[in-house]
Amino acid sequence: xxxxxxxxxxxxxxxxxxxxxxxxxxxxxxxxxxxxxxxxxxxxxxxxxxxxxxxxxxxxxxxxxxxxxxxxxxxxxxxxxxxxxxxxxxxxxxxxxxxxxxxxxxxxxxxxxxxxxxxxxxxxxxxxxxxxxxxxxxxxxxxxxxxxxxxxxxxxxxxxxxxxxxxxxxxxxxxxxxxxxxxxxxxxxxxxxxxxxxxxxxxxxxxxxxxxxxxxxxxxxxxxxxxxxxxxxxxxxxxxxxxxxxxxxxxxxxxxxxxxxxxxxxxxxxxxxxxxxxxxxxxxxxxxxxxxxxxxxxxxxxxxxxxxxxxxxxxxxxxxxxxxxxxxxxxxxxxxxxxxxxxxxxxxxxxxxxxxxxxxxxxxxxxxxxxxxxxxxxxxxxxxxxxxxxxxxxxxxxxxxxxxxxxxxxxxxxxxxxxxxxxxxxxxxxxxxxxxxxxxxxxxxxxxxxxxxxxxxxxxxxxxxxxxxxxxxxxxxxxxxxxxxxxxxxxxxxxxxxxxxxxxxxxxxxxxxxxxxxxxxxxxxxxxxxxxxxxxxxxxxxxxxxxxxx
Length: 550
Ligand code: SF4
Ligand code: SF4
Prior knowledge:
Distance between the termini: 56 Å
Bound molecules: iron/sulfur cluster
């Protein structure tokens, strides 16, 4: 079939006449409403003309210290999809699952109040929002030019007859105007947001959008969800890997800010020291926050802004309260002239409780940081291989899987990072698979962040390199995987969230080319390794069950 397809390529070649006048073709100048930085720097670099930028431009935009403005990816509007989802309001059950799994934050639930409803553009169809007592109307909005056409949203749709279907991009371009209204004019409804269930979590703004990740990426939905929960007070250090490639491919910056200018601070490090890099953030913040509390205490002792100081000292480290008490303290100190008030104003960004996350590979540093006992969170995006460098085998690759450097199938079992971290006894450990159980994923991330010590959340991420036969979109559903993935949540006491596996393990393996192709090349060895992989998985489950019984 491959040979035939190559022959077809040759046979189907035909000459295309290029009009002579195209020799002098020029782009029509278009009115650009993007901010000056996007026009002067980002657009120039995206045209591959970055070498022409003078140093003075870098200085003009404050880039000389290595920082880069957030949220530049929203101006790319690549229009990469051939087909994009179209929403059918009459069938939608308003579960928001489509938004949860979208790797690119290109589909979102929108709630409108009566004023926004009255001002909406024509064709902006809405329905009464369920469970909101008539307060809001509801709509699922797609950004046609940011969608990559992966189909994950359609595959995951819970409506009996799917409430979204893929349609040609040309038929959906009108949605671009609706998208602008939905994200720029319609306000986020804070009273609808909660971290207690998946539906309510999706009304929050994603502080990670339109990254350059592959269509259907299994990593980015986790990152997006974490930013929806903690994005306005997040500090992220990112090891080199896929997550750094799509997280900060200059000039594209998918980590963005809200209307108040708040959003995650992101930086990249080499993978061998990334966890320590996050640890450095934490120690630096700790030192400044200690000084801030000392200054607030001095003000309180002098009876200056006493109520606000007392509130800050009491609730400043509480994730839910710290923003309000910090704002109140700053307001109470307005116009106050003292060394302490000056220090507090200069370090205002450190007043609130921070959420420090390392996206990590590199076990040495990770182990060091987990052992520290400090309040740091680690998100492991486990694709079971080195995805960004072309799918090389790693210690996370399971027995029987083909990857580069294990072309004959990996012969030894997958490292159990969760069990290793659990051995400390004071680390919060969770293993999650969003496709199999989104609610458990949400709960584990929420608990990890709230735990006042080191936490690690190991996320199973389907990857294009796995060769999903059922499509990347279906892999996110994880229906087959739900039976065999082991979901453990290491708390004190240990709890095992996943039900006993019921699926056919080997059938699940054969749904992915990384396992199935071994059968074609080395059938006998393949069978031997599949059985080993199944034994490994059972042993792993048994060790979790023993822990759960303790
Ligand atoms: S097709 Fe993929 S990228 Fe497009 S909206 Fe759906 S999940 Fe998002
Ligand atoms: S997944 Fe389907 S039913 Fe659920 S909100 Fe999206 S379109 Fe509606």
